Amino acid sequence: MLPEHEALLIFTREQFPELNGTPCDVEVILKGASDRHFYRLNWQSERQPMILMVYTLARRDNPKFVPATYRLRKIGANVPQVYAFDQQRLCVWLEDLGRVDLQSFHLHAWDQRYPLYQATLREAAKFHGVGEKSLMAADLEELEPGFDEALYEWEQKYFLEHFVGGYLGREFADDEYQAAHEALKQLRRRLARLPRCLVHRDFQSQNVLIRGEEAWLVDYQGLRLGLAEYDLASLLYDPYVTLTPAERACLLQYYAEHRGLGLSDLREVFYLCAAQRLMQALGAYANLSRNLGKPHYEQHIPAAVSNLAEVCAEGQGLHELRSFFAGGL
Questions:
Q1: C-alpha gyration radius of the chain
Q2: Considering the entire predicted model, what is its pTM?
Q3: Cα of 131 vs its chain's centroid, Å
Q4: 80 FRET partner, CA 20 to 30 A, in 64, 95, 111, 120?
Q5: d(CA 303, CA 238)
Q6: Are 128 and 228 in contact, with CB atoms under 8 Å apart?
């Protein structure tokens, strides 16, 4: 066994003395672009496996995972149980939700995937139903800073710097992009004026685990105030999964009916948020692949560009954004 794994088992047995002497296989879980490390502890006994998350303080949202877990469990959302938490060693021991995520069903027939997406949207509705006015100052301190015009602008600049400039090699400050920059400004202002609720922030298929017929959430340490439609856009324009326009429309309608919302108004804001989210994703894929030594993220760029082009054609006031990326791939 690796010395690192032996150390992790020592820490674990300190938290769970009843496991002293119980053999354990430590399985490394490779997960995304996170700077956190995940391990599945498979005990050679009747004890159920558990997940050990070891995080760093390099990202400000990492320490927010445990309070976000408690908050989501309090409102009845399906999230893992926290078995133990060592704040000094930056370790969290969690319930093992299994190995099957929503993304793994991407090749299944729609009639098999649809109930899973419905279950996922029902989970989202639980925290989307928590509005800003219902939260106290102490609640807000436990969350990541909410979406406002400044954060939307940061995401847009991230897209411009890493994707438009870095990946496509375009001089996005040139006069020819003036109308597109105006569209960006109007987009962030429109979004910032809308009432906010709790949002996951990275609500895509790999962050939803499936157990039976239920959806369970992970990677929600970015929990904050924002727009429900931003989460919906993350899921329905997920570059890891191909959904047809008809499937997206079906899911939007289901969500609107489940929450008693007007479909027309929901769809209008959905396209605005989709443009914002997809630009953020493209900035991330370009940065990860070009600058952070993770070239496999480049494969997701064409799908995200295709989705963004579709959104710009559908959403009000988004057409000018196409000049940033049109003909670039």
A1: 21
A2: 0.94
A3: 19
A4: 111
A5: 9
A6: yes
